């Protein structure tokens, strides 16, 4: 079993939810507590501390508040991968599969929380999941990723507002086995 790497720290279900809320915004622990009301306060604070120690999130401000200092958190750089390619490439096949399973478990947790609401309307809420096979040359794939990145970038800059609802969008790209093997 590998030591807890940045990858492991990030892919914990609670920490992944904290990171998702900190994308393109800065929040205090109190604000995170309100957004993540299903997580016990002590547990939430432990996870925030773990993310700070791993340098996944950082303190961007300290606000005096009734005799204490309230810390404001943010991710380092929303335009930069949180896990570097060097670290990813060092992992074994089993470690990659373990990370993928945790990623899928995080998605399942998000979907389970959605389904456990009192009233759901999949159509109105825009719930969907699909799989498509794309046949693309390396150049076409690079262009596709460039276009997709532009679309993601445009909407990830949106700030929370009363008329906006947070939606989880996950992308998994798996190429077929290389014919050169």
Automatic annotation (TrEMBL):
Pfam families: HTH_20. It comes from the Bacteria. InterPro entries: ArsR-like_HTH, WH-like_DNA-bd_sf, WH_DNA-bd_sf. The keyword Aminoacyl-tRNA synthetase does not apply. CDD domains: HTH_ARSR. Keywords: DNA-binding. SUPFAM superfamilies: Winged helix' DNA-binding domain. Coiled coil: none annotated. This is Transcriptional regulator. It comes from Neobacillus rhizosphaerae.
């Amino acid at each position: 079993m590998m030591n807890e790497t940045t990858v492991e720290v990030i892919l914990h279900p609670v920490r992944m939810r904290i990171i998702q809320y900190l994308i393109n915004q800065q929040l205090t622990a109190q604000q995170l507590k309100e957004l993540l009301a299903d997580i016990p306060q002590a547990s939430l604070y432990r996870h925030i501390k773990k993310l700070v120690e791993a340098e996944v999130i950082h303190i961007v401000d300290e606000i005096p508040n009734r005799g204490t200092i309230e810390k404001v958190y943010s991710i380092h750089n929303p335009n930069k991968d949180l896990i570097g390619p060097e670290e990813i490439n060092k992992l074994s096949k089993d470690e990659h599969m373990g990370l993928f399973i945790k990623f899928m478990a995080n998605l399942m947790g998000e979907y389970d929380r959605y389904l456990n609401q009192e009233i759901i309307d999949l159509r109105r809420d825009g719930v969907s999941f699909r799989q498509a096979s794309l046949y693309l040359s390396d150049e076409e794939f690079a262009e596709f990723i460039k276009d997709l990145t532009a679309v993601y970038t445009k909407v990830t800059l949106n700030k929370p507002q009363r008329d906006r609802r947070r939606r989880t969008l996950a992308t998994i790209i798996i190429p077929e086995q290389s014919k050169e093997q």
